[in-house]
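---------- Forwarded message ----------

FYI, see the ATP-binding cassette domain-containing protein record below. Original note from H. follows.
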Amino acid sequence: MSPPLLQVNDLKKHFPVSKGLFGRKSEWVYAVDGVSFEIARGETLSLVGESGCGKSTVGRAILRLFDITSGQVILDGQRIDDAHPSTMRQMRRRVQVVFQDPFSSLNPRMRVRDILAEPIRNFGLAKSAEDLEVRVTALMDTVRLPREALNRRPHEFSGGQRQRIGIARALAAEPELIVCDEAVSALDVSVKAQIVNLLQDLQQKFGLALLFISHDLAIVEHMTHRVAVMYLGKIVEVAPRREIFAAPRHPYTKALLSAVPLPEPGAQRNPIILGGDVPSPINPPSGCRFHTRCPYVFDRCRTEEPQLRAAEGDQWVACHLDALPAG
Ligand SMILES: Nc1ncnc2c1ncn2[C@@H]1O[C@H](COP(=O)(O)OP(=O)(O)OP(=O)(O)O)[C@@H](O)[C@H]1O
Ligand SMILES: [Mg+2]
């Protein structure tokens, strides 16, 4: 059996932050603190959770935008967290990213043609100048932008069109996995749906895997295969879409999903309001990190950290409750 496209094993990323007036004493932000998951070829895994829970840090670790603190990131059976620069070059091609704000990630002085040609040149994908041109125009067709637009610069486009350029640039490298970090979050509702549909079409066409980082659960419910829910640097539940939305098991997942509007007009889940604030990732609670806000908390939760365990089928939950109530 071939390995999963991406495997993340016990990933940790702790950031040092300085404390005190002269920044001499440093402490740590436990941004991601032991996260494991897999993504299959052609699969969409969504990473959800409140602001600051570590979603982008996971994405950035996979893209190797920094060195991780510990753990492993394995692409197609090969470790990339500590890969040598020469192997890293090929690995970088295979994992691309689309950020929330294409404006800040697209060079305003470059024409679209050059923005798209850059990764093709960098990774040596074109056989000739003609091939380069063919590839660049094909990318415009793929993301449904007019070919004439190749000579324009990013500021001449709307937000949705710019995001299409961002997607085309990611595709130019012929990746197998795209990390979409809040890729549609800043767009208007109708444009959002178009870009999500485009991503789904591209996934089908190219067999792409997506790590879809989002706090927009209605969008996630519409397009994902599986969902991983994060709380304070940990995954508390991971499950296929249908199971998690129909029968969330972790008390945090239940609260998070209870706020998502149901597709039927006027219908609403019973919202669960959690008490207290999200604790700081600088000093996370002992035991289960969610225990300070959990309506079902008992003694064990304060001292012992729950591990992810199979609840039913492919639904995994990190909670000490024996009979995890579904739904
Ligand atoms: N470079 C950094 N230095 C110090 N702390 C950082 C750094 N990057 C992230 N953090 C901290 O790590 C934690 C996780 O941040 P991260 O950006 O991964 O969260 P997120 O889930 O993506 O949030 P959002 O939904 O707001 O995008 C936060 O407390 C954040 O302040
Ligand atoms: Mg983020």
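H. also flagged this: Residues 253-327 form one domain.
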